[in-house]
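Project standup — Tuesday

K.O.: blocked on the structure for the chain from last sprint. Re-posting the sequence here as requested.
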Amino acid sequence: MGQILIRGLDDETVRRLKERARQSGRSLQSEVKRLLQREANQLSIDEALERARRFRDGFQGREFDDSAELIRKDRDR
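H.V.: unblocked you, prediction finished:
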């Protein structure tokens, strides 16, 4: 398992991280680890755009009813 050492954090940042950890019931190390893992697992803009493109392409060639027409029919019932 990898390890990192972060030097030079300003006191206010460390204080805020400690406060977040305390409020979450975690150690400072656990809180920072959780934040780093969450950030590292975020999609990049390119990855998000590619997923959106694939999702959109899945609808190619399909026909959809006019939603305004469907709402009108529902209201008239």
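K.O.: great, moving the ticket to review. The chain has a mean pLDDT of 94. The chain has four helices and no strands.
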